[in-house]
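Whether sequence alone determines local backbone shape is best considered at the level of individual chains. The sequence in question and its structure tokens are set out directly beneath this paragraph.

===
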Amino acid sequence: MAASDPANEGSASLPMKRSRVSDGDESARKKRKQNPPGPKNALMTLNEMKPGLKFVFEGQSGPEHKPTFSYSVEYNGEVYRGSGPTKKRAKMEAGESLLRSLPQHFNESEAHKTLLAAEKGVDFTSDMLALGQWERNFKSFDETATNGAMHVDAPALPVEGAETPAVGQEEESSALPGGKNPTSVLNELCADVKYEEMPLQGDAQHRLFVVVCTVRDKRYEGRGRNKKLAKARAAQAALHDLYGYRLLDKDQKQVAGAWTPPELNFPDTVAHAVHAKWDALLKKAPNAKRKVLAGLVMTCEQGMPSSMGAPDLECGHVTGVVIAVTSGTKCLDGGHLSATGQALNDCHAEVLTRRCLVRFLLQQLTIASSHDSVLTRDGDRWAVRSGVRFHLYISTSPCGDARIFSPKEADDADRHPHRRSRGQLRTKIESGEGTIPIGETRIQQTWDGILAGERLKTMSCSDKILRWNALGLQGALLSHLVAPIYLSSVIVGSLYHAEHMSRALFARAEEISDLPVQFALNRPLLSPITQGEARLPNKAPTISLNWTVGDEEPELVTANTGRMQDEQSSRLCKRALFQHWMHVVHQLAPQLATLTCYSEAKAAAHDYQAVKNKLYELFARSLLGYWVPRPVEQDQFELALDERK
């Protein structure tokens, strides 16, 4: 037997370093090939070839709910025109018309790619957009008569490299496909870009860098946890305004039908307005404390009605007013149930915000015949005026399904989307915080059982917001008078995860169908803010605050009793809103004045109840659980004679 060569044995057992290096080189080359630079749109190509072209807005035609805009551009004595459902689309059409007429001395293949890019659609209905996709399209919008949502022909483009941040963290760059970030792209397009650092914002623990970008005598502001991020966001804002790019951070969730904000910093603007209103209210209620803050902002694209007073925010072409500010994280104790509708069942901030909106809408109905109201007659009911939208801000993600994830392990995608816990209906814990899944058993709460010591179950805020996205914010009573009203955006201050949030707030109900006219599954824009709040480990206060626009003073409610501190009933309780509704009915719809029992008045909203039943059946069919109703005795109260007028 021949002796083996020790040298050969050693070489055979050692790993081959050279082949490993070559494998790495090959994989690196493949990665570089995966994201080739995409085609440029018409305006970008024209800006490079013929800088200084001026696009002129020629006017608007067509009905108000479906306008057509026109733009023109002049070159060498010839005028090229374009039209479309948005100004951006019209400007793009004019640019494409000019490109087609230019002499063929430039790169024809590039021009051909540019024109194809404007016509190419993108499937953005999936949860995750391909990050290598770089479709520089203008989006066209089409107002629908169903719910006023905007239908998007092309998606908002995510910023590659902007990973979903964990709590207290933030993405370090805003790189675009092809290795270019917004700053580089803007510098290539415009030679006169100037950046200026502004004073820091926030305290030492939550400081924000602010950079202002000046292009063509226009200023664009960006904010972030570091200078690089602030500079990139300022460049994003400039690219959006000057070239129509919709560059959203990847952790913003936008799907078909979602409203598109006027500017990239819109979520921060809304959050700032709500916090500023809270700070002003604290001067009138210095003892108020909060762990969770919520607010509702109404924006208008065609000028705010004079009854709203001075706007609280301005962003792009829209102005806004803070409609409601609330705080709270507690629910009613079972021992304080009210059979007369005088106790608030749920004092969580976002739930109180919706009740404030109902109160605001009832106030608007009393002046609906004037031009100062945000409501206008639409057939046999009222509807919000064109261009009026509502935006919900919550300082942290709503309790329930939207918050069931580990923020320290949060990444782009849910690694376990099919777990049984995903999407389950959940109930809040009486006299505590947090939620528990309902399970597969149908639960019917009883009045005597709860008074005997059984825990009172209240549906989670995630589940309630999902219901609002199907039924509308107006509730059953107002459905007699007002068409469904839906949220245009939900802005979250902390504990935000795009995939979990979208599943919790609307994706669980995607299969709902055959809804009555004017009802639809609403899919609002979901977005975090630049600088979220840190986790507050302290004990949640039992006092809840609510304020609605027009109130001189905020109201403080003890959450476990559902009443004010002097035991008086809240202005947001069922009885108070029912009484206000009855006053409006006598004025606008006397035929409804016979509905003096609260439960009967709600049941008479047949379309609303039909949608609610379809939604509950979908939950059961999808094995998400059964919606847990309150004891029926809570809603079986009637108004006294002196309360009906």
Remarks:
- The first helix runs from residue 6 to 13.
- The chain has 16 helices and 24 strands.
